[in-house]
Amino acid sequence: MNKPERNMALELVRATEAAAMAAGRWMGRGDRNASDNAAVNGMRYMLNTIEMNGTIIIGEGEKDEAPMLFNGEKLGTGNNPEVDIAVDPIDGTRLLSLGRPNAVSVVALSERNTMFDPKHIFYMNKIAVGPSAAGVIDIEAPVYENLSRVAKALDKAVEDVTVVVLDRPRHEQLISEIREAGSRIRLISDGDIAGALMTCKNGSGIDLLMGVGGSPEAVISACALKCVGGTMECKLWPRNTEEAARCRELGMDLNAVLSLDDLVSSDNVFFAATGVTDGEMLKGVRYEGDRIVTNSIVMRSKSGTIRYIDAIHSLRKLDLISSIDYGPRFE
User: Fold this and answer.
1) Strand ranges (DSSP E) for 20-169?
2) What does the pLDDT look like over 106-136, one tens digit per residue?
3) CA 28, CA 32: separation in Å to the nearest integer?
4) Alpha helix positions (H), 156-263
5) Where are the beta strands (DSSP E) in the chain?
6) Residue 193: which of 169, 167, 214 has the closest Cα?
7) 105, 107, 88, 108: which is closest to 27 by C-alpha?
8) Are 131 and 301 a contacting pair, CB within 8 Å?
């Protein structure tokens, strides 16, 4: 069996739980490297226990200079199925270090050779929406037109549409155009995977995501959106003339619009995320003496199944069977 047929998201969630539990100890302590290292170690350990022949297509080593989980790294037991893996042990490392909301640990998986590899391009311009507005967005259309289309699809006024945007100087013009249209804005300091997911959750108050964010995060978000029926369009966003020239050398079209299927072409995609700090999508990790409580979401595109998992973990028992450092033990 070369294609993943079992619901591997139920196995992936053990990796996001491990990363969240190990990293959550560092909430608000101001040490991004320590929290990231803890998450990487926990996630890598658990992913290597899964029956799969996995290759990381979207890692975090190159961008964040992390010691592990780098692009091209092999994970799993080495047996079939052969799969592509996208990881972000902590989406929102700075959020975690400052004790702010919406830090999550995420993993996505699909059949081999189905994930887009952004290579040296670390950023993309993005627009993402949930299922109700999946057929109306166009990244090349003016901002007001997209807002009007989404408003019509959601049966609301443009003034009632809420857009999540990363709070960056590069978005000054975008923010100005959204305000001119009369729509509401939720500025976030980090964590645009969580931002994309919020467009798909009823009651989140978020209708679409717009702006330039990380290209690894774009691929991971695309995996999640494919599972829930949302959609996304992106364009490569080189930071300078050197990156643009390298794109041309590699035959990468800077004018091309990347659809959801361009970002992940498989129809059998698995996604798991665990909250590290409290957020609109997921609750953060709770430490209760000998117990750790986690809140996760697990999804598979082929079946359309979405599960929310509340888990209670015993520190004492985990200490006997795992080499992951989950923090102090209490008798």
Assistant:
1) 53-58, 74-75, 82-91, 104-111, 123-129, 162-166
2) 999 999 999 999 888 899 999 999 999 998 9
3) 10
4) 172-181, 192-198, 215-228, 241-249, 260-263
5) 53-58, 74-75, 82-91, 104-111, 123-129, 162-166, 184-188, 208-214, 231-236, 270-275, 286-288, 291-300, 305-314
6) 214
7) 105
8) no
Structure-token pair, residue 287: 């430490």
User: Can you tell me whether residue 323 is helix, strand or coil?
Assistant: coil
Average pLDDT of the chain?
Answer: 92
Would you say 280 and 245 are in contact if contact means Cβ atoms under 8 Å apart?
no
Q: What is the pTM of this model?
A: 0.91
Question: What's the CA gap between 75 and 139, in Å, rounded?
Answer: 35
Three-state secondary structure call for residue 166: strand
Rounded Cα distance between 15 and 3, Å, is: 21
Q: What percent of the chain has pLDDT over 70?
A: 95
Question: Residue 37 in contact with residue 323, Cβ under 8 Å?
Answer: no
- Give the whole-angstrom CA distance, residue 216 versus residue 268: 19
Residue 254: CB partners within 8 Å, gap ≥ 6?
235, 236, 238, 244, 247, 248
Minimal CA–CA distance to 277: which of 295, 259, 263? 295
Are 44 and 66 within 8 A, CB to CB? no
Q: Which of 93, 98, 102 is nearest to 29 (CA)?
A: 98
Q: Per the structure block, which two tokens stand in for 174? A: 């975008």
The angle that helices 32-47 and 9-24 make with each other, rounded to 10 degrees, is: 150
Question: So what's the pLDDT on residue 64?
Answer: 46
